[in-house]
């Protein structure tokens, strides 16, 4: 460790036993004093803007009866990658071992007398928003806050504001230990949810100390650094709360792995706690075998993805659509007592799963396993961080699709007359966004259905190369409030046959799957139903389904409007199973 001798104003190295020292916590600004500045020309370094806080730190160190202090800007030779890596991996320990920690808030002025104004300054201070300062708040055994003029801030104001600004209880600040199990992984991650670093990788590296892990620095790996951090944490703990994250911006059709992409996804996890079923107030939960909610065997990364044993029960049995399961975790929301679980979609018969419903926090569904205790079974699942959805996989979770017109004369493509529901349609980009708003009742376009039965987007197009118009129905499954699957009826195809090459969709979201039903009734001897499925990488592939005679479709003829009269060219063809 390299320290500043406050008496000689020189840097001294201590490879072995380290003397008592003070340490500075601050946010970097313009014109900082570097290691090179300090060692080559100290007089020139004194002229730099960043030297002022170093000078104040030195003065305060002397006042506290110490001979040495440490400041990160000038005590680390950042031109050496080996030294930088050692320093970052040792940072928490260095702050923990300090005799004094001076926290300098460059954007706070204590001379503002109104306590409300001072509190507002503290809440907005950049120091509470930086990733590196989180461990600098947690690690020291003794800390003191100073404003821009190096005036000490009153403790009575700080105690209330620090807890609010950092999201960390005062009791935790007074006795934090990286090895303590009092605060689970999810809670620690939530402390960093609103913090930022200049480099993406540093958002992971700045958290190593509070989890008591070490790993090499690989600048250039981007967000993979945070995945590596979580993998390293899993090697040292059996805490299921590491999976308690959510992405509120994700669509229904998002498929993810089990690990979060950044601390931001733990923003709603501050009340999570690990849970031992032995002490649960619910007798049915107490009777569970302890290993059931502790994940069975050890878990970790394999060449098949993250392998873990979890208690599963089926949400949605297979049969035309994906199988989905609730996976119970050994943690719960301490505020409401809700047990946490994940929703996993089974991708194939080899134990490959993907996490779905990532927009919902794992603690948002209370009583997930207590309602089906007799159905609980511990199963081993494998989840790749970036799930590869098989081509033959079918799902009702869809995202966005772009409409293409193929093999039409460029001067006379089909004209899109209307799309229902209209809020799902962007006419300028020709994109349908599925799952938007609530289903609507459509009458004049030929479709009649109950709003709660299914979701649908209907595209009515004018055919310039033939008579009349045709419609394509894009449909998806909806869920009731209790999560039960609602009935999905086959819908209709309006007039005019289509060649498969005339019309296509491109999926715009990664790994999003779509089902497009084209009901062609012009040829009584041909296929009665065509279904296209696909994903972003392979496009839409057509699958033709032939119905047997006993399952023949009943065709009902109804008027295009409710007025009576000759059916003529405006005949609407409805189809349903008899």
Automatic annotation (TrEMBL):
Residues 21-110 form the Heterokaryon incompatibility domain. The lineage of its organism: Eukaryota, Fungi, Dikarya, Ascomycota, Pezizomycotina. Residues 224-250 form the DUF8212 domain. Pfam families: DUF8212, HET. PANTHER family: HET DOMAIN-CONTAINING PROTEIN. This is Heterokaryon incompatibility protein-domain-containing protein.
């Amino acid at each position: 460790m390299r320290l500043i001798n406050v008496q000689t104003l020189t840097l001294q190295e201590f490879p072995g036993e380290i003397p008592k020292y003070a340490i500075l916590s601050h946010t970097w600004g313009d014109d900082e004093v570097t290691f090179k500045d300090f060692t080559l020309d100290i007089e020139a370094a004194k002229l730099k803007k960043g030297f002022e806080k170093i000078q104040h730190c030195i003065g305060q160190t002397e006042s506290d009866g110490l001979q040495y202090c440490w400041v990160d800007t000038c005590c680390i030779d950042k031109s050496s990658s080996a030294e930088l890596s050692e320093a970052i991996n040792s940072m928490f320990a260095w702050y923990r071992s300090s005799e004094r920690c001076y926290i300098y808030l460059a954007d706070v002025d204590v001379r503002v007398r109104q306590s409300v104004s001072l509190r507002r300054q503290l809440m907005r201070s950049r120091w509470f928003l930086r990733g590196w300062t989180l461990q600098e708040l947690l690690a020291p055994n003794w800390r003191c806050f100073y404003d821009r003029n190096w005036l000490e801030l009153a403790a009575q104001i700080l105690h209330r504001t620090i807890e609010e600004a950092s999201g960390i209880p005062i009791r935790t600040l007074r006795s934090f230990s990286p090895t303590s199990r009092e605060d689970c992984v999810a809670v620690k991650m939530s402390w960093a949810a609103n913090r930022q670093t200049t480099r993406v990788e540093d958002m992971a590296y700045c958290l190593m100390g509070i989890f008591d892990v070490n790993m090499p620095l690989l600048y250039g790996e981007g967000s993979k650094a945070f995945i590596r951090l979580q993998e390293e944490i899993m090697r040292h703990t059996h805490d299921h709360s590491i999976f308690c994250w959510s992405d509120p911006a994700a669509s229904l059709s998002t498929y993810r792995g089990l690990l979060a992409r950044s601390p931001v996804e733990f923003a709603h996890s501050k009340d999570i706690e690990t849970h031992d079923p032995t002490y649960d107030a619910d007798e049915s939960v107490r009777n569970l075998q302890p290993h059931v909610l502790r994940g069975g065997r050890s878990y970790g990364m394999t060449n098949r993805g993250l392998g873990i044993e979890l208690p599963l029960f089926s949400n949605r049995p297979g049969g035309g659509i994906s199988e989905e399961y609730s996976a119970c975790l050994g943690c719960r929301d301490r505020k409401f007592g809700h047990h946490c679980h994940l929703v996993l979609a089974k991708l194939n018969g080899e134990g490959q799963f993907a996490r779905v419903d990532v927009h919902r926090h794992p603690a948002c569904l209370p009583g997930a396993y207590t309602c089906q205790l007799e159905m609980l079974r511990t199963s081993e699942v494998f989840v790749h961080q970036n799930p590869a959805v098989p081509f033959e996989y079918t799902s009702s979770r869809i995202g966005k699709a772009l409409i293409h017109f193929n093999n039409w004369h460029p001067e006379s493509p089909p004209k899109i007359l209307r799309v229902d529901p209209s809020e799902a349609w962007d006419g300028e980009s020709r994109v349908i966004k599925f799952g938007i708003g609530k289903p609507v009742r459509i009458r004049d376009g030929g479709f009649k259905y109950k709003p709660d039965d299914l979701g649908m987007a209907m595209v009515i197009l004018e055919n310039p190369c033939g008579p009349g118009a045709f419609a394509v129905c894009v449909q998806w499954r909806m869920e009731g409030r209790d999560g039960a699957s609602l009935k999905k009826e086959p819908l209709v195809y309006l007039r005019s046959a289509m060649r498969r090459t005339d019309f296509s969709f491109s999926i715009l979201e990664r790994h999003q799957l779509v089902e497009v039903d084209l009901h062609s009734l012009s040829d009584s001897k041909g296929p009665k139903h065509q279904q296209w499925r696909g994903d972003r990488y392979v496009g839409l592939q057509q699958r033709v389904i032939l119905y047997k005679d006993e399952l023949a479709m009943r065709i009902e003829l109804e008027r295009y409007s409710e007025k009576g009269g000759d059916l003529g060219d405006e005949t609407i063809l409805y189809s349903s199973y008899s």
